[in-house]
Amino acid sequence: MELFDLTGRTALITGSSSGLGANFARVLARAGAVTVLAARRLDKLESLAREIEAAGGKAMAVQMDVTDPASVDAAFAAIQSELGRPCDIIINNSGIARDNWFTRMSEEDWRAVMDTNLDGVWRVAKAGANALMEAGKPGSIINIASITALRPSQTISAYAASKAAVDHLTRVMALELARYKIRVNAIAPGYFKTDINDEFLESEEGERMRKRVPMRRYGDYDELAGPMLLLASEAGSYMTGSTIVVDGGHVVSAL
């Protein structure tokens, strides 16, 4: 278990005010990392920080809008000022969706998804990698992709395209940063109930989708804990440029 120990590490988790991001923060804190909680809703982050500290962990809340370069820069400056060191684990989890047929999607909705899901990953990874390189520190960047990057699904063209781009960007980043001992990997979750998809998964169409998953169920948040700890810790020290699919067999289901 020492391989998965994150004592002495500092983990930044974007989109950690709720859902998967909040759970990632709890998982990393239990493994010993100081967690830096980043999102737009500061009140939610502060509540989660108190929860983590009450359980014996360490947490810092920082307001960050991944679509705003100035906000990202200010957040990294605040982290350096308060902690005196860069984050050596970076979880790019912020994401949004806009459902519609691609022929009917507005420019505004398309750009909103791309700016958050793709550009936001690039902004945060760039800031985090530069901070690590300047400090001469190794690190691990983990991008949250999606199985929609690997198999098509109707009415989510912007979301799927953004996640496919994140999947490939992960490999390019891994190639460029390997010489600096910064690993870059991705997790592609299947369907887990979040603020983004809860309404759909509770619908009749969502129930039909559940039956197409070979395990016949949606995922539980804690089933992402193992892959997250593997990629964040020394247990995954020789892994870079990989995407781990966690989906109950969904992407290998028969057509």
Can you put this structure into words, describing what you see?
- The protein is of the alpha/beta class.
- It has a single domain, classed as NAD(P)-binding Rossmann-like Domain (Rossmann fold, 3-Layer(aba) Sandwich).
- Helices cover 44% and strands 15% of the residues.
- The chain has eight helices and seven strands, in the order βαβαβαβαβαβαααβ.
- The protein has a seven-stranded parallel beta sheet, sandwiched between helices.
- β5 (139-144), α5 and β6 (182-189) form a beta-alpha-beta unit.
- α3 packs parallel to α4 and α4 (107-135) packs parallel to α5 (157-177).
- The longest helix has 29 residues, at 107-135.
- It is globular, with a radius of gyration of 17 Å.
- The protein starts with 9 loop residues before the first strand and ends in a 9-residue tail after the last strand.
- The model has no long low-confidence stretch (mean pLDDT 96).
Descriptive tags:
alpha/beta; Rossmann fold; seven-stranded parallel β-sheet; 8 helices
Helix content: 40-55%
Q: Using only CA atoms, what is the Rg? A: 17 Å
CATH architecture: 3-Layer(aba) Sandwich
Order of helices and strands: EHEHEHEHEHEHHHE
Name of the level-1 CATH class = Alpha Beta
Helix tally? 8
Q: Gap between N and C termini, in Å?
A: 39 Å
Number of strands: 7
Shape: globular
Secondary-structure-based class equals alpha/beta
Q: How many domains? A: 1
Strand content: 15-25%
Topology:
Layout: E1 10-14, H1 19-30, E2 34-39, H2 42-54, E3 58-63, H3 69-83, E4 89-92, H4 107-135, E5 139-144, H5 157-177, E6 182-189, H6 198-201, H7 204-212, H8 225-232, E7 243-246
Parallel strand pairs: 1-2, 1-4, 2-3, 4-5, 5-6, 6-7
Helix pairs in contact: 3-4, 4-5
